[in-house]
Amino acid sequence: MTTIVEQETAASSVPQGANREGLIFEHSKRGRRGYRLPALDVPEKTDLFPTNLMRSEIADEVEVSEVDVIRHFTRLSKLNVSIDAGLYPLGSCTMKHNPRLNEEIARTPGFALSHPLQPDHQVQGNLELLWNLEQTLKSILGM
């Protein structure tokens, strides 16, 4: 029996209908290299570190071409939920999409630097905008 957290994690990790993109290790082929580093110009590691601190075997590394890496991470990026790529199912009404224009306007210095507890005489422009919005909404709603 799976827990709710496991179910939610499984449901949210790969969008419905999307193919699972395996780990990059699953694309590895022995001997394939994406990039070769230049020869080292530093002392041998045995000259720098005690042998008891070094690995006895080389760790497994991914062996994929540069193109394979690019394609792998491009496919992964397309699995991300993005408001720019389609429906973005948000929760409550307070979390719905805010158009970019509104966000841009809200970041203008006159708004971004004002505080809700400022005295009325310091935020007349904000109050005028809210009053105009109220009148427009009343007109639209027939109030």
Number of domains: 2
Structural class: mainly alpha
- Poorly predicted regions are 3-9
Main sheet record:
none
Average residue pLDDT: 78
User: What's the overall geometry?
Assistant: elongated
Order of helices and strands: HHHHHH
**What portion of residues belong to β-strands?**
under 5%
- Provide the helix percentage: 25-40%
State the separation between the terminal residues, measured CA to CA: 54 Å
Number of beta-strand segments: 0
Radius of gyration, in Å, reads: 28 Å
Total helical elements: 6
Task: Report on this structure.
- The two termini are 54 Å apart.
- The chain has 2 domains: 19-79, no CATH class; 98-141, no CATH class.
- Mean pLDDT is 78; it is low at 3-9.
- The protein is 40% helix and 0% strand.
- It has helices at 4-13, 45-48, 66-79, 100-106, 109-112, 124-141.
- 1% of the residues are buried.
- The protein has 6 helices and no strands.
- By secondary structure, it is mainly α.
Helix and strand arrangement:
Elements: H1 4-13, H2 45-48, H3 66-79, H4 100-106, H5 109-112, H6 124-141
Summary tags:
2 domains; 6 helices; elongated; single chain; 143 residues; mainly alpha; disordered N terminus
Give a summary of the structure in a few sentences.
By secondary structure, this protein is an all-alpha fold.
